[in-house]
């Protein structure tokens, strides 16, 4: 339990902010980040779905290796990989433990491993793709594939507001901490302290609900004057916005390269 | 010349409100004017401005009657979208007006969404007008508060509107940056022929920049006059809790005949140059016990690019009991970091900060909170409960202090909050919020109180009120540190002024040593109170710091010499 | 009647405000819950699943549709995209399930001051959401593992693990992070937060009942959304596999049919109840209208 506390100490708000914004904007110079969003969507369309239906271990491992390489190329922040691994290990581990209880044996391991490889392939594919697109690119891409304008606006707005909101939350949380009193005894398994902090974490949303409501009002008024209601409904605005998107040689090369690799996997293995 | 803006018989009532917020308003403004709107809280200033870009009546579905014409467009017949090409509005909470993560993106947001093919150029041009072109690729969170304000202005300028409205352009800025923003507005007005409308509490800015003043009172236009004439109506302004520039106040008190001066330049010639009565400066009390000490402290934080940014350099400082310190310097000079180090919420990267002999690195912030209270600049961040009373009681209640109810009551009384006890703190006016946040701070029964900009965003009358309350706190606390841009507050409240500049303490002394040092003021970007500059130009060896002091000393001078101004 | 209805019609921008409010707050909370490590007591995971009370509160206080969609989108943007764990297609299922659950919970409440209604709505929201996501999770393992039944114990364990997580989420997260905080927040915010957005609070006289607001049109949309959630998962995971083994398909088919029958039944019953209620009401109003001329 001690590790939780240490981790929580390390994960200061500032640190989290830095990591997050780096995830969003820090990878602008990788090869993948220079590709057109449509290329990445197309690529993901394949690697996000097909592994589900592949039951050949060799091909799966081949795909997974490919994903590991692309993930490396995309320079993903370590925090994200850490979170991903925790999730995957957790899920696989449970299933294993419980199926052992139900009379399974170690042979259960193999299909579970295969499942984990599948899940990792798919997760790595989405991480590669979505971390290689900075928010601007992603929203442009989404607009291009006919997702409503509100969604791409929301993405941009989310990134705009995240640091502000996080900071405000942090301030309120601190106010609770400084003015309240943490339980003097940690209780069995720190249960008291955990309960105390979770309670504060929730209570902090009450002030935030009100202040965000004030914000939302100004923002929407400003949006009105900035013509976004007009822009969401006019195709020529969309065209203007997406004028910079273009498929280049590297896009085609990347797609062809991936196709050759996958075909090779199926033929050779 | 035909009127640019014409408001005729407008009455407006917000949905659910009991009284109309605008009551049969008639007003016309001409093209190329520079207008300042004055008025107390709730006099309808912001509502008046929202009439002009059509947010009222299209956006606020209240009871609207009358007619508003802007640039020949009737606002009732045209949509907000059409009108915003003519009227640009910069909100008081301009931060929420910025909707894109990057600077240029936000500046070109409006032209893009209106379908202008040259949206990019328009955005760039607007950024150039406000001097932000170098930051065009920056992210919003990398900007300072002042830069964000300029960006909000640029985003509005990108549509090239004829009329620009700014709600409190300088509320959160240091004097130096405040002047910058007014200079930009003046350029827009004089070079580009734009009509500028500002809502402003600082009459000294109004006097130097505006051409015309509109005074509002409870939903009515009280007057609309040229600036000199308007600021000369000292009694009327006083009745509306508005304080004319210090020069004007001084001249008025001295019974200057005819038109009162409204700027420093006008003031010089009117007052005699004779030596004033000598003052004995407030003596430094004998040094008492040290409470806080900074020993060679450096402080740095990681920026987004994972580089360390050093905010404080080699700070050495001791704070004694009985010190009432004003911490002054530009935005970004490191004032907040200096104070936050004492709360233990952030830790020094090099050196030690000792509070009552204990190293802040070794004790949790919760422990320090019982000794050191930090009052946020934005009172919103102090409010965690759903009414004022509970907020004040929170600390005492969680520590199970006996008989806390009666203590809360006393505090509510002291800060004049008894009537507001069961209201939600967030829904109070600016001054009430400030008082509530102070009550919360004092309720924690600290030895040291740290205040971040306690008078920002307040109108001058409320500001005076808060200054008075702060003065009353001196005997409840061992020491107080105030970070502020408000030099009048610094002069009236502090017995020690620390000047910070780019993360270093460049001066530590009494007010005379700060304001008499021309180079220091220049370097730190400080602007002394107007009355100080006036008396200094008049050749006073010991210039006056407040209008009251001026009146007292000038008067004695007159009596002594029999000279009348 | 018309005036009453008119009073609760929100303008386009008010809808946008609700949407932005819900999106940023639930998004933020999601990011926080994602970052807080979970506590494992053996196989039991006591994690902060989600702060469902935020969208629940907003759905109850404001227009449920915009609050629900805003919250789901907020989760995707803050909790997934920004943390770099955007799951691509899987997010669609989450989006639909969560929006639907929150929306239904919001429409259930007629009077935000009625604690009983608020409490039931909060639990209802969590149960619907968990039901859908547990079903989808089970389907995923079923599809993802070849010859599932050949592996001893796996099939049962999947159901047990998911079943347990369902109970855990509903009883633990549901009560701690949905029921209690919603009951705390709704009365506190009611009448206070609405004016900040320039709206009037919902009140009993607004006749904001399930039948009138949902109407057959939205029931149909709800059904389509639910169906889409399943069909989507089904198609994307099972649709094109040519090497599918006959017995596996049988087993899978049975399971799927059982689930879809259950859901369909539920939806049909709700529709019928709502329709009948609505009809009787319109009948009454019709009769009244008939009476007036005579």
Automatic annotation (TrEMBL), chain A:
Cell compartment(s), UniProt: Membrane
Pfam families associated with the record: CbiQ (PF02361)
Topology versus the membrane: Multi-pass membrane protein
Protein name, as recorded: Energy-coupling factor transport system permease protein
The organism's place on the tree of life at top rank: Bacteria
Originating species: Gracilibacillus orientalis
Family annotation (InterPro entries): ABC/ECF_trnsptr_transmembrane (IPR003339)
Regions crossing the membrane: 41-68, 80-103, 109-131, 187-209, 252-268
Gene Ontology annotations for the cellular component aspect, listed alphabetically: plasma membrane
Main location: membrane
Keywords (A to Z) from UniProt: Membrane, Transmembrane, Transmembrane helix
Keyword Cytoplasm: no
From TrEMBL, chain B:
Bilayer disposition of the protein: Peripheral membrane protein
Principal location class: membrane
Cellular location(s): Cell membrane
TM ranges: none
Keywords: ATP-binding, Cell membrane, Membrane, Nucleotide-binding, Translocase, Transport
Cited Pfam families: ABC_tran (PF00005)
Gene Ontology MF terms in the entry: ATP binding; ATP hydrolysis activity; ATPase-coupled transmembrane transporter activity; cobalt ion transmembrane transporter activity
InterPro entries, per database record: AAA+_ATPase (IPR003593), ABC_transporter-like_ATP-bd (IPR003439), ABC_transporter-like_CS (IPR017871), ABC_transpr_CbiO/EcfA_su (IPR015856), ECF_ABC_transporter_ATP-bd (IPR050095), P-loop_NTPase (IPR027417)
A cellular component annotation (GO) from this entry: ATP-binding cassette (ABC) transporter complex
Record-annotated ABC transporter domain positions: 5-243, 292-527
PANTHER family in UniProt: ABC TRANSPORTER ATP-BINDING PROTEIN MA_1418-RELATED (PTHR43553:SF21), HEAVY METAL TRANSPORTER (PTHR43553)
Similarity-based family: Belongs to the ABC transporter superfamily.
NCBIfam families, A to Z: PRK13648.1
Protein name in the entry: Energy-coupling factor transport system ATP-binding protein
Organism listed in the record: Gracilibacillus orientalis
TrEMBL record, chain C:
Family matches, as Pfam families: DUF8171
Segments crossing the lipid bilayer: 16-36, 48-69, 121-143, 163-187, 208-235, 255-276
Keyword Transmembrane among UniProt keywords: yes
Keywords: Membrane, Transmembrane, Transmembrane helix
Source organism superkingdom: Bacteria
DUF8171 domain residues: 17-282
InterPro entries reported for this sequence: DUF8171 (IPR058484)
The keyword Membrane is assigned to this record: yes
Protein name (database record): DUF8171 domain-containing protein
């Amino acid at each position: 339990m001690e590790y939780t506390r240490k981790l929580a100490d390390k994960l200061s708000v500032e640190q989290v902010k830095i990591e997050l914004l780096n995830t969003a904007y820090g990878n602008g110079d990788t090869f993948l980040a220079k590709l057109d969003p449509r290329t990445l969507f197309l690529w993901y369309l394949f690697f996000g779905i097909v592994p589900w239906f592949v039951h050949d271990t060799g091909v799966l491992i081949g795909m997974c290796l490919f994903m590991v390489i692309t993930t490396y190329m995309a320079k993903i922040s370590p925090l994200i990989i850490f979170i991903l691994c925790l999730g995957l290990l957790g899920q696989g581990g449970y299933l294993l433990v419980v199926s052992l209880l139900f009379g399974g044996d170690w042979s259960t391991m193999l299909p579970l491993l295969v499942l984990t490889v599948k899940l990792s392939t798919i997760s790595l594919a989405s991480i590669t793709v979505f971390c290689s697109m900075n928010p601007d690119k992603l929203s442009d891409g989404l607009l291009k594939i006919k997702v409503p304008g509100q969604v791409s606006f929301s993405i941009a707005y989310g990134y705009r507001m995240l640091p502000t909101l996080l900071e405000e939350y942090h301030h309120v949380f601190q106010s609770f901490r400084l003015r309240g009193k943490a339980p003097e005894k940690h209780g069995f398994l720190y249960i008291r302290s955990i309960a105390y902090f979770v309670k504060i974490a929730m209570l902090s949303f009450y002030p935030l609900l009100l202040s965000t409501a004030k914000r939302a009002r100004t923002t929407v008024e400003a949006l009105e004057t900035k013509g976004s209601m007009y822009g969401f409904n006019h195709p020529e605005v969309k065209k203007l916005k997406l004028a910079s998107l273009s498929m280049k040689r590297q896009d085609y090369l990347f797609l062809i390269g991936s196709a050759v690799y996958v075909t090779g996997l199926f033929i050779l293995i | 010349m035909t009127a640019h803006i014409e408001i005729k018989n407008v009455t407006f009532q917000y949905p659910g409100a009991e009284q109309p917020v605008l009551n049969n308003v008639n007003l016309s403004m001409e093209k190329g004017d520079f207008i300042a709107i004055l008025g107390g809280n709730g006099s309808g200033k912001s509502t008046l401005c929202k009439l002009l870009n059509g947010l009222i009546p299209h956006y606020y579905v209240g009871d609207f009657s009358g007619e508003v014409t802007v640039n020949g467009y009737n606002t009732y017949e045209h949509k907000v979208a059409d009108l915003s090409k003519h009227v640009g509005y910069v909100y008081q909470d301009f931060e929420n007006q910025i909707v894109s993560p990057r600077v240029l993106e936000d500046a070109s947001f409006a032209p893009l969404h209106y379908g202008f093919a040259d949206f990019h150029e328009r955005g760039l041009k607007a950024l150039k007008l406000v001097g932000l072109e170098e930051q065009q690729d920056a992210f919003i969170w990398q900007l300072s508060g002042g830069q964000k304000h300029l960006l909000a202005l640029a985003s509005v300028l990108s549509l090239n509107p004829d009329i620009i409205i700014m709600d409190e352009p300088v509320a959160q800025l240091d004097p130096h940056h405040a002047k910058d923003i007014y200079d930009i507005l003046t350029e827009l007005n004089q070079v580009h022929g734009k009509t500028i409308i500002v809502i402003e509490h600082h009459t000294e800015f109004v006097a130097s920049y505006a051409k015309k003043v509109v005074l509002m009172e409870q939903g009515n236009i009280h007057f609309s006059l040229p600036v000199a004439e308007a600021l000369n109506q000292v009694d009327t302004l006083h009745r509306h809790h508005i304080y004319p520039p210090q020069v004007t106040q001084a001249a008025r008190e001295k019974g200057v005949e005819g038109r009162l001066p409204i700027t420093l330049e006008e003031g010089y010639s009117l007052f005699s140059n004779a030596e004033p009565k000598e003052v004995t400066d407030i003596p430094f009390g004998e040094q008492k016990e040290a409470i806080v000490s900074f020993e060679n402290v450096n402080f740095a934080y990681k920026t987004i690019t994972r580089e360390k940014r050093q905010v404080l350099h080699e700070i050495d400082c001791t704070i004694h009991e009985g010190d009432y310190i004003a911490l002054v310097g530009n935005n970004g000079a490191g004032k907040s970091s200096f104070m936050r180090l004492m709360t233990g919420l952030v830790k020094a990267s090099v050196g030690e900060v000792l509070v009552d002999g204990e190293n802040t690195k070794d004790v949790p912030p919760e422990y320090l909170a019982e000794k050191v209270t930090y009052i946020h600049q934005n009172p919103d961040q102090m409010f965690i409960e759903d009414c004022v009373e509970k907020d004040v009681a929170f600390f005492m209640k969680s520590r199970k202090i006996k008989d806390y109810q009666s203590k809360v009551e006393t505090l509510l009384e002291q800060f004049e909050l008894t009537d507001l006890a069961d209201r939600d703190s967030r829904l109070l006016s600016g001054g009430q919020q400030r008082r509530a946040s102070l009550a919360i701070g004092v309720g924690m029964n600290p030895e040291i109180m740290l205040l971040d900009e306690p008078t920002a965003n307040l109108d001058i009358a409320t500001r005076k009120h808060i200054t008075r309350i702060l003065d009353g706190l001196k005997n409840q606390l061992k020491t107080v540190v105030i970070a502020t841009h408000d030099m009048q507050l610094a002069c009236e409240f502090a017995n020690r002024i620390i000047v910070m500049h780019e993360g270093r303490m460049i001066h530590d002394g009494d007010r005379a040593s700060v304001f008499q040092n021309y180079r220091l003021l220049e370097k730190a970007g400080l602007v002394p109170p107007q009355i100080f500059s006036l008396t200094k130009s008049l050749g006073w060896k010991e210039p006056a710091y407040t209008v009251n002091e001026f009146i007292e000393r000038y008067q004695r001078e007159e009596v002594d010499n029999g000279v009348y101004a | 009647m018309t005036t009453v209805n008119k009073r609760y019609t929100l303008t386009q921008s008010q809808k946008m405000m609700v949407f932005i409010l819900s999106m940023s707050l639930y998004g933020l909370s999601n990011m926080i819950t994602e970052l807080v490590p979970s506590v494992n007591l053996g196989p039991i995971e006591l994690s902060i699943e989600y702060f469902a009370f935020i969208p629940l509160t907003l759905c109850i206080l404001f227009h449920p549709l915009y609050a629900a969609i805003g919250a789901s989108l907020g989760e995707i943007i803050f909790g997934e995209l920004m943390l770099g764990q955007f799951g691509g297609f899987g997010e669609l299922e989450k989006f639909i399930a969560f929006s639907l659950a929150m929306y239904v919970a919001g429409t259930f409440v007629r009077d935000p001051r009625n604690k009983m209604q608020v409490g039931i709505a909060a639990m209802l929201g969590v149960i619907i959401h968990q039901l859908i996501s547990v079903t989808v999770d089970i389907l995923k393992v079923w599809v993802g593992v070849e010859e599932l039944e050949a592996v001893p114990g796996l099939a049962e364990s999947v159901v047990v693990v998911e079943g347990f997580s369902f109970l855990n989420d509903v009883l633990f997260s549901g009560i701690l992070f949905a029921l209690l905080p919603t009951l705390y927040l709704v009365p506190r915010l009611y009448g206070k937060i609405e004016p900040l957005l320039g709206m009037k609070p919902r009140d009993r006289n607004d006749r904001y009942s399930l039948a009138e607001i949902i109407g057959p049109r939205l029931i149909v949309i709800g059904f389509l959304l639910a169906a889409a959630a399943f069909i989507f998962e089904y198609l994307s995971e099972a649709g094109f596999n040519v090497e599918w083994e006959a017995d596996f398909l049988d087993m899978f088919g049975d399971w799927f049919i059982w689930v879809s029958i259950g859901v369909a039944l539920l939806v049909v019953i709700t529709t019928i109840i709502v329709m009948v209620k609505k009809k009787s009401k319109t009948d009454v109003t019709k009769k009244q209208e008939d009476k007036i001329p005579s």
